[in-house]
Queue: 3 jobs
Job 1
Amino acid sequence: MLSFLRRSYLNFSFMNPHYCCLSRNFSAALPPLLPVQLPSRMETHLWYVVPDEVKSAPLLSKYMELLPQYERDHVLGFRGDQLQKSALLARTLVRTTIARYQVDDHLDPRSLRFKRNIHGKPEVEWETKDGFCPPPLQFNISHTSSLVACGVTMNSLIGIDVEEKRRRTKNNILAFAKRYFTAHEVEHLNAIPDSELQQQEFIKLWTLKEAYVKALGKGFSSSPFNTFTIRASSGIAVETLDSPQNLTNNWQFALLELMGSHYVAICLERQETGGAGKALPIKLTARKTIPFVEDELVSGTNAVVTIGGSVTQF
Amino acid sequence: MAAASASSFTSLKSRPAPGLATIAAVKSGAPLSFSFRRPVPAVSRLRISCAAKPETVEKVAKIVKKQLALPTETPVTGDSKFAALGADSLDTVEIVMGLEEEFDISVEEDSAQSIATVQDAADLIEELVQKKCG
């Protein structure tokens, strides 16, 4: 039971100067969200929350209030506090982040509606209003109990996947890979003599494959993992089995190590190329956040290390 | 304000509104599934049961608990959703692999993706095992 979501009086003490507080003790609403600029067409925004850093029961309570009833039910459907908390933070992150882009001047995280496209991928359902042309905002969420992340672009289909670096499979890696990955990927893993490194390579491969399928947005049954190979020798590329000679150029990847503890894989639909079809690097802005409390720009710091793909951090 | 569930454990009987099995899967990072429950064939009078349903559900529950490192006394029933128990997409695939080994069956990837609850898994297993048993 999410015991700390019992109704309690609010008592915030926001320490961060980024947010203007009238008083340390809040008994009413959350402060307004600070707006942020939409990503340009070439940019990718990565937002993340570290659940362990969000400890305030009143704050979590307020997050819950942002959600429509069916999302609250969904959060409470998870078994145990930790799972419920990361589920809550995932919904809060996506709602507050999209709201902050101020697409529609009075966008309230509460009023955002989500729908699914014909393939089942979640999308924002913008209000239909005269003269309002919804922006081609794309987003994707991923979370583990220790990290909640949301990637946002303008126009580029995006898929992200996060995983703890030290995640271990219960099954033997090679047995698992032989069952679910492609022959090339099995070979790649098999060639790694150190078991610790092999485990990490496996997790990297897993997150990249997940990110690809999530970016495609057509569901996992349309792209089973053994029908495409992720090649990560020089740069990262995907090769589908039905056209092996034709490295699928539509998709580009980034693999990041976050806070030294997590892998984050990002897959993007390629928008433009440089001269002679050469891919331009992914322009990434990464921010760690606690919604309504603080943001920290972390791209270009030790917190976000590019370990695969061509990425420029801003 | 959402009322916290009165019971200590999340009520397994309170299912989310239709459509949320898929939303639940997406939110937790688990694979999208487009069918909430894999269609089970109509009862066949010539059905040979190679595995009784409660036993199958029990075995599935045991494998799930092992994969998710849940204490053995954790209540896991047919209604239990993998995602709600904390299974992400990697866990789900590992669970399916464990089921394949336990029951000596082979689960197609698209069937695997449609498994949302313990009962779904048990039903699928029984169907595959029956095919094998004749």
Note: Chain A has six helices and 14 strands.
Job 2
Amino acid sequence: MGGLQKKKYERGSATNYITRNKARKKLQLSLPDFRRLCILKGIYPHEPKHKKKVNKGSTAPRTFYLLKDIRFLLHEPIVGKFREYKVFVRKLKKAYGKTEWSSVERLKENKPAYKLDHIIKERYPSFIDALRDIDDALCMCFLFSTFARTGKCHVQTIQLCRRLTVEWMNYVIASRALKKVFISIKGIYYQAEAMGQLITWLVPYQFSHDHPTDVDYRVMATFTEFYTTLLGFINFRLYHSLNLLYPPKVSWTLKQSQMKLSALSASLARVVSTAEEDEAELDQFPVDGEDMANMEAREKEQKQEEAQKKLFEGLKFFLNREVPRESLAFLIRCFGGEVSWDKSVCIGSTYEVKDETITHQIVDRPNIDKQYINRYYIQPQWVYDCVNAKIILPVEDYFLGVTLPPHLSPFVEEKDGDYVPPEKLKIMALQRGEKPAHEQEDEEEEEEEDEEEEEEEEEDDNEEEGDDGEEAEEKNLKKMEEQRSQGKSLSVKVTAGKVKVENPARLEQEEKAEEKRLAIMMMKKKEKYLYDKIMFGKKRKVREANKLAAKRKAHDDAEKSKKKARK
Amino acid sequence: MAPSRRTKRVVASQPGFLNLKSSSGAAGLPSIRRKRVNKNKKKNWNKHSDINDVTEFLEDVRHQERTIGGLLSDKSDDNLFFLDVGQPKKAEQKVAGFASAPLHHVSCYLLYFPLLSHLSPNHLFCPHPTSVLAYQQPNAKKLRRIGQKAEQLAAKGVVPRRQKQLLNRRPADRTAKKAVTEANNNPDREYYDIWGQEYTADPWYLQQTGKKRVKRPEKLNEKPSVLPAVEVIAPGGSYNPDFFSHQALLQEAHEVEVKKQKEEDKIERQLAVNKEHIATEETILREQVEGLVEEENEEEAPNEEEEGVAVGAITVAEKKTERQRKKERAYKVKEQLRQANRYQNDKRQQLFQLRSIKTSIKQEEQETKDKQKQRKAKQEAQKAQPRRLGKLKFKAQDMEVQLSDELAGSLRQLKPEGSVLKDRFKSLQKRNLIEPRERAKFKRRLKLKYVEKRAFREIT
């Protein structure tokens, strides 16, 4: 029974945590400064497991930080700068109050400023770490770059964000890195692949801001301050990885060139001539037979990817004034197309509407007065859908004034057995290289879109339904009948026997199926039970998908009948 | 030394000696009677002999020598006086301060400016002193030589080395400012390859000079949530959605709304007033006459209470007999034996129950395993959840959804839904990067005082 009595809350979790106010006092900072420091240094509040223990018996909700984190903050040189700034503000106020303009001038000249470079290096020791965390930075910069010059944030911040985002977009164009794009009701989602990292970002629509009141602008500005620094360094590195000059080349006066760059029609200056950095061929290694197939598949994939990168190459676009210029120009240039717009809309247009070589004009209004015969007039969704489908889609569905097919999200990945909307199925078929036979197979879908053709085809509809195979058989039968009618009598002949062709693939398949069946038979009771359960789940999924498809068909039919009734 | 001192002393005793310090003579004669002491001891000499007058005199002599270059009494009248012929112009410029006062007596002039004395007035308007030392310069010859040489060299056009060095020194640029750190949001700021450069300074040097940065703990680089930075909206959120995905999104939004409605209803139900609790006329009346009307039941109650007291009394246990005790003890022993036997028997029997025991153990293990799994799954799910980081709980923002009739036919007519700014802010909260917080309310420190303005008061 010896020893001192143990005091409560002097060991364990109570000593590992510190409340926000205590931390603030320890650092001798005001609350806004403390928040700013935490955001910049990447130190976040922590929820302890046993709040009552940490809170010394009280259950009041508090914000806790880990004590070690705060101790780490004590070493930060920026803390000193914050204190200096506080003093600076005080002095400035005093000078203003006394109307000592000379001292105001002097103080302003020596305004304390701090750098975040060392924090970037500390938080992201390697470039790839930084690249992994770039999503947030991009979103924030794109967001701030769309802000108007209201008092909500500093004008300089907006300009910097604008510059950085334009630089980033130009990098994506130069490296042809864009993968997916999705127009949502919130904004436009993009996904690109840089150095093997998938990067997603959200761009708000222009002029769509009503400034919400329940957002802390100071916090957002602090995040942006950090992210602009980060994005700048990343941009620098990315540009250099492509042998591009980093602050993109300034040809005229600064202002103009920046505008030109932001118009996304100028290409970037290279440090090294382009010939040198041709795509390096994949090294060939001697491989085993097993890897061979893999390798081939990979090569094929790569070739496909290369082709996708040149999706719009050779096409010449012209953007009408009512379409979102920046987004479309970015997209088209990402895939190698040429793009221009009316001179009065924005600086940087390269050719005019009258240019005869334009292949596509992007229009978003019901009709247009003067049409050139040698170009397609299409709605902007075509460009987005082409990018997602990775092929040039048929333009008919996107003509002027036509009801558009739905814009599907490229971010959904269906597993087998899931319900797949018919529009997606169609695109997938196109991707596989199957030509959509307008007259026969897809007429159901066609009907929705081409209202003119609908009525003509109406009669054919009923007769032409059926599978490919059936049709072929029918044709054969017809031929035979014709022959019969011609020859009048069946000629009895002994024909040479045909060798029954054994399809090795099919045999293999059968063998596999047999194996599977046997394996199922040999299962233990327990495993069998589990297997059955899984299979049941799969079947249920399929059933549900079928149900949805049927529903869709019913819906479509209803729509069609409605349309007919209207006519 | 001794003879000179003697002469000085002699001079001092003479009546013609002029004392430079006025105070020295006037300092009161000691009127106190002299103390008598033995003079045969050296100690007493030092202690009791008054040497003030002597020291003062010596001081004065030294002063005179320092300032005039000899004793005043030795000087001839020529040396001490001069003819005032107005003020020379140069002097006026040089010593404007005291040129205005006419100077007649050097001694009085010297009295006031003893240190300046040999600088100027002697030089300017006094005739040269007779002493050679007065116009001999130390190292004069050497200096003259140097001067001559310099002149020669200058004539040749040779610039001395020292001057050359001075000329060569770069003029300090006073106008250049200190290197100012530019603001972080400067739109034209420069970037560089921050990951390319390696350590420039010697780590040992940095450590010794205290400039080494503290290493960031690895744990800080972990993200506080597993959620992705950008959560892509469901496919139904497309501007031109597929019918079914749009319906699915609507369904989801509907469910959220229903849940909210339910919670609201619940609160309303709990707060609703129970109809039975509302006072009717009858209850009001009863309340008013409470205690006025006597009731019959009251009389019966006390009787019951008395009976209860009688029942509750403690009964004293009777004493057991010896026989009873013996019997009890025997029974106890027997019981113990029986229990032991039973225990033994059970143990033996367990040998035959091995299988069932095994199964039960297995079952238990399975149960614990399942529980572990469940707990782990729960923890994983928790990682994606927003934590409780402060006073407020995280509140998800409203789902962005457009009803079927709100959907735009084309991109031009699209009306954006929700705010990206808010979406980003909520995402930061959801990922536990910042704690949910309410905007600080404005609190007035001093109460407002309303005063009717005079002009207004006059009208009313």
Note: Residues 38 and 44 of chain B are 7 Å apart (CA to CA).
Job 3
Amino acid sequence: MMEEVNEVTSSLSVHGHNIKVTEVLKDGDTLTFLVVSQKLSGTGEYHVDRTYDDFEWLQQHLFSQEDVPGIQGVIFPSLPAKAQVNASAKAMKQLGFLGLGEWLPYCKALESFLRQIVAHSILGKNKAVEILLTSSDPPGRQRVKKNIFNRLSQAVEERRKEGHKDVDEFFQSERVRNLVLTGCAKTAAERFLDVVQSEQKIAVACGHFSASLHLCVEPGEDPDKQAFSKVCVKLSEVFDSMKKNMTSVAENNMNTLGLGLDMESRCQEAEKEMLFRRTCKLVELETARRNAEKAKPLKKAAMEEEKKAAETEFDHICGVAKQEVARFKAARVEMLQQALVQWCEKQLLTAKETADQFNQHLQAFRGMA
Amino acid sequence: MADTARDPPPEHTDFHELEDGEDLFPEQTGTLESEPASLAAEDISTNSNGPKQDSLFDDDPEDLFAEATEEVSLDSPERDVLLSDGPSPAITPITPPCSVITPRIGLAHDDMFTHSSFDEIEEEEGGDSFDMHISVSDPEKVGDGMNAYMAYKVSIKTSMSLFKSREFSVKRRFSDFLGLHSKLASKYLHIGYIVPPAPEKSIVGMTKVKVGKEDQSSNEFVEKRRSALERYLMRTVKHPILLKDPDVLQFLESSELPRAVSTQALSSAGLLRMVNKAAEAVNKMTIKMNESDAWFEEKQQHFENLDVQLRKLHASVESLVCHRKELSVNTAQFAKSAAMLGNSEDHTALSRALSQLAEVEEKIDQLHQDQANADFYFFSELLGDYVRLITAVKGVFDHRMKTWQKWQDTQMLLQKKREAEAKLLFNNKPDKLQQAKDEIKELELKVQLGERDFEQISKTIRKEVSRFEKERVKDFKTIIIKYLESLVQTQQQLIKYWDAFLPEAKAIS
């Protein structure tokens, strides 16, 4: 399938599976991310500072590998939307989970982006990857030429092609499934976000209540007053515990399942884009075939050439796409499983810790004469 | 046994409470016994059976005093009859010739009888410690349309000798509770007892119920009310004096309770309005009380502060309840979307796990709802109750001021009469002199009474406040323990759910 050697192949000098985006620094309006990767040979590490523009640069390079046969059949790892300090409410809403938690989930998303690229049999070979991960200079802010992958540039007429009937049962059913899953995943992520935000509000309310209770503490030696003050102080501690609990629960939700649902949602979108590209190619191919058939003798040869080229390209894409779909399915199941297991383990731990704390408070109150 | 326990609050003849703007001494200046006792300004009920009392309530066209025709003594057998629709005789004989009043020579004018016998009651019953449990349950709609009402079952379990049986129950409706409260308020508030306020009326809530909307909000309303009525009764009976009041006992034991009149005015919201009006009136009268007792000044400030703090806490809890309910709604929504995700998923194990996820989230939603209820019924209502209780406390302090004022006014009047007498002497008008002397004698007694009233109410308030402070601590502790128990239980449930889900998540691949 891929006989031609990719001119931009290179081998990566770092491990892919443990790339970390460890820190995010705010520099005025810009966010800078620290990317850490382990050297393949020896025990060294690369520490590089990257901004969102650098990630986008990488993405554009990957998109523009036109000479890689079937590149359009690749399901590209999803790069999250741009993170901004003082982002607008609309922008924050678009980011969803990634906009929460002081950008920690966002860092995780960038991490995942890089790890997926490195692990990809085609994408990982691109030189740009090595540059982004290891170069001490930022890859530069030159805009790579616009490419066909930029969905925004796709004209409105093209969208009609989305519903174009497929010739391949495998892809037809995959398109249908993808459509449903994309919608479900997006809704689930949004609703889970609502849950997390409610939990955060509860944590804040508990904090307020706890603080207000301290105002009820009355000075004085009156034993009844002292008794009541003691009750208030102890109750304040209870609500403090409740606040901590809710905060942990929300964080657990955010960092595991929330992130997982967000990833799933973006991954399904990525698959959707790939399937769409393929569908567009299919339309092109069918057009080319018709043209070749209908062509006047003068143009016939040229049309036949075009038809053949379209067929080849389409075959390549289908080949890559089939592999990608299989890889994608396995990857997302694994990702979701990890998210669910981590989520459950963390919540279980939090629940146990909290149960202990509440029990202690209960005993303290019961013991209060 | 029962008889001695039921020493009625003694009748007192001329405990004369002022209404706003009313003359300190109405025209009738007959003997003390013939002066009708009148209402505390706060009292909204029909308990006044003094003649020519203007109705306090413009919105009530009913002649409140139409039935106030009979003389009563607390020992009279007509007592039970008169505890029905109409003024409670517990305070007032209307035109009591001395013979009707239990003859206690020398104490005929002794309003301290009121209080000292209460003290006796408290000390007497030392052996019978408080052991009573009241529950309000089984709300049942009676009737149809706008005349419908909710009947509640009031069940009492007790070992106290005060009661005829150990376990018994009665059916009561909301206006019965209001009626009880108004009677207690009229009897006890003005002498310094902190009478627990009755639950609020709610036109909107009740209309929904009457109209027959069987939806969640009207169910919630009924439950909220049921719980409030229960707490109200428990607070009332925990008060050693109130427990023994015949109206309370009748409320708890009588199978048939005559309908309380005009409960529109009897609601605690109305009471609150009256208390506030009285407070304003007190302020307007610019009572510059020479507070000789720093305790009262300090306590009043204390209650002012407490009021502010409790309201703040209450608002805080309301916000918490609101967010908790929102969380429940969001959790339910998420559960649905997780279920859809599971259904659309073709990887079998993942699909199953996602469906399990949806189920877990549904269960967690239920936990959130339960927790929201706990937040509300334990804390929100507790704080609300105490905010309302403090209003009653403040009312009692205001009464003390008014009592003081009355005493001072009487003293001033006495002074004036003395001066007038001196003038008469000077001008040698012997016929008017005798009248003046009589008036002076009368006033001297009144001054004495005024002073004793003031001392007594001060003493009572001190006791009541002390009791309040102790009860407050107990109340809060009890509720907090219940709340913590609910928190612990929730966490343990959560642990169960997570424990059950974990293998499902791990089994995905």
Note: The longest strand of chain B covers residues 132-142.
